């Protein structure tokens, strides 16, 4: 299984769109891996997690064939994870030609369904191949070679926000964005189903600040990693990587890498590829 981090920032990006804080100025000056776009990930070549407003840029920067994507799993309906306007332009013969894959299935909760309603309606009576499928916590979905299991995220009180277990080819990924410290029911599910993760991607929005609410920081990432170890959900061979960073967390990529490494974490950056 190959994971590509297409975007690694929180909602405002880094540098944030209108911000002149010290940490956004540092990112602008140093550029490189310190520039972060909105959160999105690609599994192999055909499964996307989330569809933010930076999806077009991700396609250009990573030389992607997004028409090869067959599945998009949305974590929740917030704009930085579900900005579906560009999906209109998948219409073959109108905006797109020679699609690699004819069909695209969108998965998400009911709030995501509401945001996608106009797109799904537009494609309903046309042979454009887009459809929506609702997913619910702890109900696995089989699509192609993947088994994808939604878990309840601690993030948004207005909807069932989701994080995911993704299993393929004997490998298991825990993708934990966006969420604060998981509910007890999540640990119960992972233990009961004997999930052993080869790779964990941890929400680290708060970075060096004390974490709280619907996101985590370095402090809670360490606690969560240690709990996973104690419960047997990960082991010493598991790769632990932090992702989804806000400029409010203060440490640009170059500053964060040595801090995270000392704690036993990789630090994600836009375009980072991990073979699991």
Give the key terms:
single chain; 276 residues; alpha/beta; Metallo-beta-lactamase, Chain A; seven-stranded mixed beta sheet; 6 helices; 14 strands; 24% helix; globular
Structural class by secondary-structure content: alpha/beta
**Counted beta strands:** 14
Shape descriptor? globular
Order of strands across the widest beta sheet?
A: 6-5-4-3-2-1-14
Helix-strand pattern: EHEEHEEHEEEEEHEHEHEE
The low-confidence parts are none
Query: What's the main sheet like?
Result: 7 strands, mixed
Taking Cα atoms only, what radius of gyration do you get, to the nearest Å?
Answer: 18 Å
Helical residues, percent: 10-25%
Corresponding CATH superfamily: Ribonuclease Z/Hydroxyacylglutathione hydrolase-like
Beta-strand residue percentage: 15-25%
Instruction: Determine and state the CATH class.
Output: Alpha Beta
- Measured between the Cα atoms of the first and last residue, the distance is 5 Å
> What is the domain tally?
1
Architecture (CATH level 2) name: 4-Layer Sandwich
Quote the CATH topology.
Answer: Metallo-beta-lactamase, Chain A
The pLDDT mean sits at 95
In short:
The chain is of the alpha/beta class and 276 residues long. It is 24% helix and 24% strand. It has a single domain (2-275), classed as 4-Layer Sandwich (Metallo-beta-lactamase, Chain A).
Structure description:
The protein has helices at residues 22-30, 55-62, 110-124, 184-192, 218-231, 253-263, and strands at 2-7, 40-43, 47-49, 71-73, 104-108, 130-134, 141-143, 146-152, 162-168, 171-176, 199-203, 239-243, 266-267, 272-275. With 276 residues, the chain is an alpha/beta fold. The protein has a single domain, classed as 4-Layer Sandwich (Metallo-beta-lactamase, Chain A), CATH 3.60.15. The strands form 2 sheets. A 7-stranded mixed β-sheet has the order 6-5-4-3-2-1-14, with helices on one face. The chain has a 7-stranded mixed β-sheet with strand order 7-8-9-10-11-12-13.
């Amino acid at each position: 299984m190959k994971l590509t981090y297409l975007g690694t920032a929180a909602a405002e990006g880094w540098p944030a769109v209108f911000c002149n804080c010290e940490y956004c100025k540092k990112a602008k000056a140093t550029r490189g891996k310190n520039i972060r776009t909105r959160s999105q990930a690609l599994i192999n070549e055909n499964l996307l997690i989330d569809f933010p407003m930076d999806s077009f840029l991700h396609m250009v920067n990573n030389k992607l064939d997004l028409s090869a994507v067959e599945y998009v799993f949305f974590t929740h309906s917030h704009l930085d994870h579900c900005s579906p306007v560009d999906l209109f332009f998948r219409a073959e013969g109108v905006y797109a030609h020679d699609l690699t894959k004819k069909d695209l299935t969108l998965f998400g909760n009911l709030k995501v369904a509401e945001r996608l309603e106009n797109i799904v309606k537009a494609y309903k009576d046309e042979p454009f191949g887009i459809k929506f499928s609702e997913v619910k916590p702890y109900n696995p979905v089989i699509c192609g070679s993947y088994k994808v299991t939604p878990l309840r995220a601690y993030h948004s009180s207005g909807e069932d926000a989701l994080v995911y277990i993704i299993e393929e080819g004997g490998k298991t990924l825990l993708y934990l964005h966006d969420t604060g410290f998981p509910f007890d029911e999540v640990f119960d599910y992972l233990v009961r189903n004997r999930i052993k993760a080869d790779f964990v991607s941890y929400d680290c929005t708060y970075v060096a600040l004390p974490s709280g609410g619907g996101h985590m920081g370095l402090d809670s990432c360490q606690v969560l990693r240690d709990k996973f170890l104690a419960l047997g959900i990960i082991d010493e061979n598991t790769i632990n990587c932090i992702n989804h960073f806000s400029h409010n967390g203060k440490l640009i990529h170059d500053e964060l890498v040595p801090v995270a490494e000392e704690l036993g974490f990789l630090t994600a950056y836009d375009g980072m590829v991990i073979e699991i």
